[in-house]
Amino acid sequence: MVFDLDMIKKVYERYPERIAAARKVVGKPLTLSEKILYAHLWDGNATTEYERGKSYVDFAPDRVAMQDATAQMALLQFMQAGKTKVAVPSTAHADHLIQAKIGADKDLQDALNKSSEVFNFLSSVCNKYGIGFWKPGAGIIHQVVLENYAFPGGMMIGTDSHTVNAGGLGMVAVGVGGADAVDVMAGMAWELKMPKLIGVKLTGKLNGWTAPKDVILKVAGILTVKGGTGAIVEYFGEGAEAMSCTGKGTICNMGAEIGATTSTFGYDDSMRRYLNATGRAEVVALADQVAEHLTGDAEVYANPEKYFDQVIEINLSELTPHLNGPFTPDLATPVAEFREKAIANDWPLDIEWALIGSCTNSSYEDLSRAASIVEDAVSKGVKPKAILGINPGSEQVRYTAERDGFIDTFKKFESARIFTNACGPCIGQWDREGAEKQEKNSIVHSFNRNFAKRADGNPNTHAFVASPEMVAAIAIAGRLDFNPITDTLTNQNGEQVKLNEPTGFELPPKGFDVDDNGYQAPAEDGSGIVVDVKPDSERLQLLEEFPAWDGKNITGAKLLIKAFGKCTTDHISMAGPWLRYRGHLDNISNNMLIGAVNAFGGATNEVVNQLTGAKGEVPATARAYKAAGIPSIVVGDQNYGEGSSREHAAMEPRHLGVKAVIVKSFARIHETNLKKQGMLGLTFANEADYDKIKEDDTFNFIDLVDFAPGKQLTLEIVHADGSKETIKLNHTYNHQQIEWFKAGSALNLIKLQNQ
Ligand code: F3S
Description:
Layout: H1 5-26, H2 32-39, E1 56-59, E2 63-67, H3 68-78, E3 90-93, H4 104-129, E4 132-134, H5 141-148, E5 155-158, E6 172-175, H6 178-185, E7 190-193, E8 196-203, H7 212-223, E9 231-236, H8 238-241, H9 245-253, E10 262-265, H10 269-277, H11 281-289, H12 298-302, H13 304-307, E11 310-315, E12 322-324, E13 332-334, H14 335-345, E14 351-356, H15 364-379, E15 387-390, H16 395-403, H17 406-411, E16 417-418, E17 441-445, E18 461-465, H18 468-477, E19 489-490, E20 496-497, E21 519-520, E22 557-562, H19 569-572, H20 585-588, E23 607-608, E24 615-616, H21 618-627, E25 632-636, H22 648-655, E26 658-663, H23 668-676, E27 680-684, E28 698-701, E29 713-718, E30 724-730, H24 735-743, H25 746-754
Parallel strand pairs: 2-3, 2-5, 3-4, 5-6, 8-9, 8-11, 9-10, 14-15, 14-17, 15-16, 17-18, 22-25, 25-26, 26-27
Antiparallel strand pairs: 1-7, 4-21, 12-13, 19-20, 22-28, 23-24, 27-30, 28-29, 29-30
Helix pairs in contact: 1-2, 1-11, 3-4, 3-6, 7-9, 10-11, 15-18, 24-25
The chain binds FE3-S4 cluster (F3S).
């Protein structure tokens, strides 16, 4: 048993009391989302109603999950917290660092050769601190979580945006940055703005070629990539209950593509079946005792308009297969209308590759339904025109699918390739032959994201998202505009044949099976385990404590860069090739702000070094100030730090000696990340003061020694000609956050408190 039954038991034990308290303060029937949120308040029973979209609330998540690319920095930070064990059950999953090229065995070996240092680090740090580790090849984080850890009514955070997948099993599961995961693993609260609620009523029943994927492709078309922002999407209705649990996971998974905080479904029979099939009958027994609390109140679902901020209704009986794309997941087109639209937009119709997998669609049901299409085509003498690539979601799914003959079915297509149970092409880990030529082409896949360059690095690859069964059908036809409901194919004898509708199994009729699931349980007592990080490693670096504030005003600080316009976390800490250094703060700091536009001259990664007068790269200039013992300051525009929640964007400036980031406005998560790393994240009291900042300015804080909640700070700007101006700066630090600043970082403070 890899899941923590005691923890689940405790969560359910407190449900009745917590829900009763929530009913009292909210004073009306409750949605499922509200029940889960109010049942997980950090302070216990609710004493006040929180305003949706406004109130910031402290929660106590039940679990943490991390994937290998983000876990490195999260765990390096956790090691700084002075804890001997994580405070909540946590897991790390090696799934992002495995490239798809030839096939599972060779690719996995290649990844082990290239990244064993990172895998060994993750394995040892997990072992030491009580974290479950899923080894390379064990599967994709969200499939593994659904199969082993997700439980109805639970709350989880994960360092990956598709953590939301666990909503398929009735959780509120949210993707966060590593810093949030570290807080929760260290025993602190997790803060979230009380989400708004979008209700999606599903009537009717899926049939024929239509799959759960088409529900979310349709929803994405309605809500667009921003429509779910700050909201939980709650699905309900007879259509929801008639759908498999993994199908629900697919829908929740792609909630990330509409910007939703998360998505969820009420506890039902499909979840019972899935929990039982995945060896968790004990969880079913516990959940059944509080079943009424694990779904929304009947009145809420009867009159959703009264209780949700927005309601959408979809009749599944009328829903048809969709293809979404290219370049954005919300460009939804019913398959029947695709040909006309593709021709009008000059999208390439022929495809060379069709891919099934990713955390979105790699379940047993998905593989069985796709295999039924392949089997049908083979029996009718049709050969595939495109290469079909498959990444099973987990070793358990792969092993069972192989036992039940589906893998052999795929292999009946000579060109099929079975890749590792890992993310692979979904995260650009795909060595696609010829991609470097950057030719205009189309691919179809069952993944979630289809941004330019994401799968193969070629900006001219038009990627379309569809259900696994549609991907299989398109692979066979070799054309995107193939509509299996109406179109025929020519077989080897020159006859016109039609593909049968997909059939499959929600769950394996003979049960799941696996030889080695790839799980490493942590040591009972990890105190003797040494986490091995080589001093000369270029990929991993143990963190050193950031120094505490010396209690004095910061003076003589030089302007490092005044960023103009959009400055997202990608501009501050680029991804792509820099992914390699996610576990090495000093090396990854060489990408600090290299994408930011310098307000003086408009160049990127070029600023004046005030010590020499010469122009230099941003990271090198920051290092020069740091080496000279001179603090530096970054100035930014509106919504500075929007985008991902990666903490590297705050840790890098901290590491390179930047003391304060002063902007017109912040993206909230980045602002919090700066605070956590012991930085000053400040805003101009008067936005127009941004214009007062000159390229060769020096700054003195006048009253930092009186740093207090709600009190403005005063900054003296000394221009190169000796003239001075004084401006006011706002901040949002509370008492606790000021303590973080004083201690040097939130982790330093935790460590101090532990001593
Ligand atoms: Fe992996 Fe792609 Fe999901 S990168 S976690 S399979 S979105």
